[in-house]
């Protein structure tokens, strides 16, 4: 099963990459294939130690990529504090619209 990892990034130190990576590794150890925006950001050269303004970062490109990843996934897993993120909230509603399984990480209790 493939799961998309959603959570707060902007406004969090290092864009919350350490928490995303820890959750991704945890889910992978449990047999999930993980699609995570932080890994996709790293693949395009994003540096979590720099500001958005200091990088060639286009939110529109990331939104398209993330929507595509959600469409391809079987489920999404929401990190703690996801409700404080506009992006993760949109991802939650997109998953609902697509009738994907939605889990609260780390318990993986279905929402």
Summarize the structure.
The protein is an alpha/beta fold.
Describe the structure.
- This protein has 111 residues and is of the alpha/beta class.
- It is built from four helices and five strands.
- The protein has helices spanning 17-29, 37-43, 59-72, 86-97, and strands at residues 2-6, 33-35, 75-78, 101-104, 109-110.
- Strands 2-1-3-4-5 form a five-stranded mixed β-sheet, with helices on both faces.
- A hairpin with a 4-residue loop joins strand 4 and strand 5.
- Helix 3 (59-72) runs parallel beside helix 4.
- The protein is globular and about 40 Å long.
- The protein starts with a strand and ends with a strand.
């Amino acid at each position: 099963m493939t799961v998309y990892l959603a959570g707060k990034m902007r406004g969090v130190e290092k864009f919350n990459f350490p928490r995303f990576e820890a959750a991704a590794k945890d889910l992978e150890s449990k047999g999930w294939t993980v699609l995570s925006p932080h890994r996709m950001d790293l693949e395009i050269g994003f540096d979590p130690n720099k500001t958005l303004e200091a990088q060639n970062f286009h939110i529109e490109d990331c939104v398209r990529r993330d929507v595509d990843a959600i469409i391809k996934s079987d489920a999404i897993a929401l990190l703690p504090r996801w409700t404080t993120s506009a992006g993760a909230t949109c991802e939650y509603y997109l998953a609902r619209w697509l009738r994907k399984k939605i889990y609260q990480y780390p318990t993986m209790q279905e929402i």
